[in-house]
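batch job 7 of whatever, protein = Thioesterase domain-containing protein
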Amino acid sequence: MFRAITRISSPFIALGVGFAAFPKDWRKGNFTSDRKLTSFNQSVIEQIQNTNEYKKLQEDESVTMHYSSQTFPSQHHKNSVGSGILFGPNLMEIDPIIFLNRDQGELTGFYHLGRNLISQDGQIHNGVVSTILDEGLCSCGFPLLPSKKGVTAKLSIDFKNQIPPGSTVILRARVKEAKGRKVVIHGDLETYPLQEGEQPLKIAESRCILVEPKWFRYFSWLQVF
């Protein structure tokens, strides 16, 4: 009888211990404002910072600026696409710079894409474009969800052009609808000229439906998400 009870109860005990211990480990990477990844292309960052759009966003008191890597603990960077697998020289060469207006549901993000992110045609792979749009539009919509977190229910992308390698791109996203556990976000991605005489190139238009599963509220006390 004792063995039977132990055999049945042990998995539940282990699961409970795991849930209790995991949040503590998750919080080891403190969310500090000065923590960011090392950017591999400082010259691009300086050029972005010298643009009128960047300066205007920085002066806007309704907008907060952060680096993409600051949105989750450092021990999980290696498991992320943008700050782990695809981050480095000739890949995603800067820690994406994000400006977010939480109240209005508006986001502007700056990215730089290196030559090793190309597909067989020599242009930046559309999978990279999809990743930027998915992560960016979700980040734009998260603040308007009850628990501030959710999952992508549907992502639609209308590809217009391909990105030449070595390009800086800008994402402009805005919330179109926010109702309960559902948020709809639209976004445009285009190249961001840093040299005089260059013209922006529309890369893609996207629409994201972001939802918060009902069971998310049961994990809020664990601070897992």
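notes: Residues 2-26 form the longest helix (25 residues).
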